[in-house]
Amino acid sequence: MMNLVLYVWRQKNAQSQGQMVRYDAKNVSPDMSFLEMLDVINEELISKGQDPIAFDHDCREGICGSCGLMINGQAHGPKKATTTCQLHMRSFKDGDSIYIEPWRAKAFPVIKDLVVDRSSFDRIIQAGGYVSVSTGNAPDANSTPVPKTNADKAMDAASCIGCGACVASCPNSSAMLFTSAKIGHLGLLPQGQPERKERVLNMVTTMDKEGFGSCTNHRECEAACPKEITVDFIARMNRDYLWASLTYQKPSARGGGE
Amino acid sequence: MAITGLMGFGFVIMHMLGNLQIYLGQNVEGIYALDQYAKNLRAFGPMLYVARFGLLTIVLLHIVAAFQLTKISHQGRPVKYYKTVATGSDYASRTMRVSGPIVLLFIIYHLLDFTFGNVNPNFHEGQVYANVLASFSNPLISLFYIVAMLSLGLHMYHGLWSLFQSLGANNTKYNDLIRKFALLATLVVVIGNISIPISVLIGVIKK
């Protein structure tokens, strides 16, 4: 069993000023997950009639992208390739102080305590993170060949769960890793080709409009990403963006059109 | 940022190759190779001023881009963290906004030292070899040049890798190679340039 000192960001709502508040976490089991440890603290707070610490979580198995805390200055804590929910208390020592903060970015405003509004990510997706395909019967398997290497890379990019750790860990609050993963995932597959240029132009424009910072290639995002998505996708997006800016033409029809 | 940085890199390499001619000493007519090189450059006449204007434009555009990036990034995080730990970035990437201004100060001093001669202890236009010797014989000036070159090295090490990334000119196959290229080019420039003040101080380059 461990005793820990927590410094947790408490903020009543989006409008109010927040502050770090100290909590003593006693008898913490090393087998607890980080969120379970917070659950226990919250039980105590509730029993004392206090407001529990608000934090985002859902699947608690590292696949939904809901959880995300800045733990001792590292997005999702000290462990590599894990989300906050997959972090266990055995990563800490008895007597440790743990600073717990929400993701910090203009585009991720705090709603309450450790919960931030990540709908800016949704708007980036709405700007082009999809392929427009006609519905109908499923096509024959393998009727559209995809090179194995592309399929693998697309899958790597698609493993992005949209947690926002890339933005949180970036010294510039840039969302390039998230956006590039989504663009790379679709751009590597045949189904993504028809809208490839519009996609990169629209998604990057939306990303900038949402108020994310600029990328200066620190590679903090890559280190923080629980899915280990690499900055190669950022370079890929830059390449696509450059090409699309130079060659994209608005749809137009002459002659045979209506 | 990347494009102007790449141009700056090209200039830095050419400048170093020019500098290193200090080691060629004198030719049979007793003219220093470095002075002859400077004379050859001057022979370009008006083209020299086109090049100088071009370089000035590159530097200014680089600075403007740096300010723009910095502004966007500062606006990106209005509330700072209490605690942050760097895991993916390196010292060079985190100090770009420090090494850059040091290099800028250096460029200004360097121009005043060897182009305009205002701060050179004993300046004679066209006598490049003697001017270099006059400046670097002062250990403080040499030290400043060495510190400036180390800053340039840090700036280049991150910048040279970074520009490939920003321009999208990458491929998983060549990523390691690009890193090694950045390191090698940085070492060549830093060691090549720093060797000159050191050579002057220890007396390898003398009158």
Radius of gyration of chain B: 19 Å
DSSP strand count of chain A: 7
Low-confidence stretches of chain B: none
CATH superfamily of the largest domain in chain A: Alpha-helical ferredoxin
What does this entry show, briefly?
By secondary structure, chain A is of the alpha+beta class. Chain A has helices at 34-47, 119-126, 148-158, 165-169, 176-187, 196-209, 220-224, 232-247, and strands at residues 2-10, 19-28, 70-71, 74-75, 97-101, 110-112, 115-116. The model of chain A has no long low-confidence stretch (mean pLDDT 95).
Describe the structure.
The complex is a heterodimer of chains A (258) and B (207). Chain A is of the alpha+beta class and 258 residues long. In chain A, 33% of the residues lie in helices and 13% in strands. In chain A, the strands form two sheets. Chain A has a five-stranded mixed β-sheet. Chain A has a two-stranded antiparallel ribbon with strand order 6-7. In chain A, α6 (196-209) crosses α8. With 207 residues, chain B is an all-alpha fold. Chain B has one domain (2-201). In chain B, 71% of the residues lie in helices and 0% in strands. The N and C termini of chain B lie far apart (41 Å).
Give the tags:
heterodimer, A: 258 residues, alpha+beta, Ubiquitin-like (UB roll), Fumarate Reductase Iron-sulfur Protein, Chain B, domain 2, 2 domains, 5-stranded mixed β-sheet, B: 207 residues, mainly alpha, 8 helices
